[in-house]
Amino acid sequence: MFVDVHAHDCNNVSKNILVVNNGLDLESNKRCLELKNKNIRCAMGLYPLEGIKLNEDGIDENIDFIKLHRNDIIAIGEIGLDFKFNKDKRQIDIFNKMLELAEEIKKPVIVHSRGAEKEVLDVLKRFDLNVIMHCFSGDLNLINKKYYYSIPVSVVERKWVQELARKVDVSRILTESDSPYVIFKKRKSKPEDVKEALKKISEIKEINLEKTKSTIFANYNLILHE
Ligand SMILES: [Zn+2]
Fold first, then answer.
1. Distance 152 CA to ligand 1 centre (A)
2. The dihedral sign for the CA sequence 104, 8, 20, 70
3. Is this structure's pTM higher than 0.90?
């Protein structure tokens, strides 16, 4: 099985790929639930740049919805901090709430950390959670050996992603498309692109393709089991 642990609104995928749709707000969490099928899993979260648009009641409404559907989801995501596009420190309170929720309902978290890698790691330190860092673009010295890192499909094209894949141990690597929000080969990314990412990762790691594929699937089953 190929795995795409971070996509949005995927509604159809070939049967040799497992996709995890990540919710960004109440609307997309609801959609995520509807899109579940044999190959499409659901994670629910509150994206930092959506969270700051809400008042406390809006945030609680999101949390209640996720709690209600705890048996339908395999992770809390997408959550995190984004100081590249907005420096509102309220993001940190919201992130803390989502991590408390993950602890309470015992789910792994899928974390966004753009422009706030150090801050994200500082917050995560206070929790005992299984963590997937999505599209991590921080200093490679910040890599936490206990966390999983989902390597975006841009590993095929971008040197900094290749460096990330080189640095993270293969036992902590996952793959993701972040479709449809990533531009890959001058078009929108799609879950199928993880096949190319896998090939590139196997080259970087100097591990044959089948072994790389089975290791990443095993990693998926370890952290994102039903
Ligand atoms: Zn995303």
1. 10
2. positive
3. yes
